[in-house]
């Protein structure tokens, strides 16, 4: 994408924090690239080159600055939301699409040619897809070097490198020093994490309304799978046979969340971190979203309070999809009760895990699609129609693991979900919003959404609300969140609303 050299230089000269993460500055005289807020002396204008992504700066031959540490930037570059295809591709890369795969495979999932994908990345990021994927791994490795006591060989595997040799070469190329020298320079102090756990920092761009996010998650917490309090979110997870209880909470001293991961999940630290980042929406750019939505005078009154709201995601897409089906035409509490019965009947217990709460904490894994496809659900209190929909959904996902995949775009994902008997547009859009992380998903038929928009007047028709929401693209999902949490008191008492 095109960056205005004059505007970027002014931002660097003033160290304006609003531009942090939106672009990176390569300094030709030193060979490093920096964040706009770097405390070092402002370089001369003629020595500056500006890049829309850290990957673009590294691909041009610059190395990260040791003072501002661009690898710790909140990671919300200026292209976010400008290309839906690039955003989907980046989500796939974050899920590991290029860890062992080819660009051609990524392009196939996006429904494009590999040449077109390369062109889009060059246009919006100034870097190739492989450069973005490699930077993701090496910066995460640096994160582990600085913040954990893991041996370097284990860090190589946890960060997604196929071999220690590739890991050493990538660190040397990016930071111009070996992993051993990097750890020595960072003066890592062991013993900062609780025994048997790793603690990782997940930086975000403020404001971040943790209290509002928790208030949304508390009534929806799955019994025995999740435990949510004002200070911490905890849940039982399982990845590739490795299981444990993770914890997420705010850091009172810095703009980041703290993620605590048991050592049993060490081989999957990158996957766990990416899932949690997505689940807690740490990559959002609240100022850009609020600026766009505040142009609508009806939403402008919510803009100041809504800027820190984050879209609550899901650890497991299938789990969220089932929860959405259970929430059709019942209260939030009713859906939670049904989900709890389902987990109690068919969820797998974590061996030796009590979640740290004396037996009341998370110790169950949500049942797999193959299990629910054959389950007798009516004795749990589900209606015949709802039980049939859950089984149909589970069977479809068991047969096709790509069903809950948004690589083809929002409309494609919603259309595939609507083909399942019992799933209408409201359920499909809600699943796309929370499980598939589609920020433009918009469940226009949601009763609470329509009530919030009407402000006590006549309820708008879904088609009319959809027409009004066209001006909110590509952030219609955040507009829905604003209306759910700010525009309607006592949301949770509304049937069929934001299950």
Compose a concise summary of this entry:
With 499 residues, the protein is an alpha+beta fold. The protein has 22 helices and eleven strands.
Give the tags.
499 residues; alpha+beta; DNA Methylphosphotriester Repair Domain; Arc Repressor Mutant, subunit A; Endonuclease III, domain 1; 5-stranded antiparallel sheet; 4-stranded mixed sheet; 22 helices
Structural notes for this entry:
This protein is an alpha+beta fold and about 500 residues long. The chain contains 22 helices and eleven strands. Strand 6 (about 225-230) and strand 7 form a beta hairpin. Helix 13 (about 295-305) packs across helix 22, helix 14 packs across helix 15 (about 330-345) and helix 20 crosses helix 22 (about 475-485). The model is unreliable at about 490-495 (pLDDT under 50).
SSE inventory with pairings:
Layout: H1 5-14, E1 24-27, E2 32-34, E3 48-51, H2 54-59, E4 63-64, H3 84-94, H4 103-110, H5 114-124, H6 129-147, H7 152-158, H8 164-175, H9 179-185, E5 197-203, H10 210-217, E6 226-228, E7 233-239, E8 242-250, E9 256-262, H11 269-279, H12 286-293, H13 297-306, H14 317-326, H15 332-346, E10 348-349, E11 364-365, H16 369-373, H17 384-399, H18 410-418, H19 425-434, H20 447-454, H21 462-469, H22 476-486
Parallel strand pairs: 2-4
Antiparallel strand pairs: 1-2, 1-3, 5-9, 6-7, 7-8, 8-9, 10-11
Helix pairs in contact: 4-5, 6-8, 7-8, 13-22, 14-15, 14-17, 14-19, 18-19, 20-22
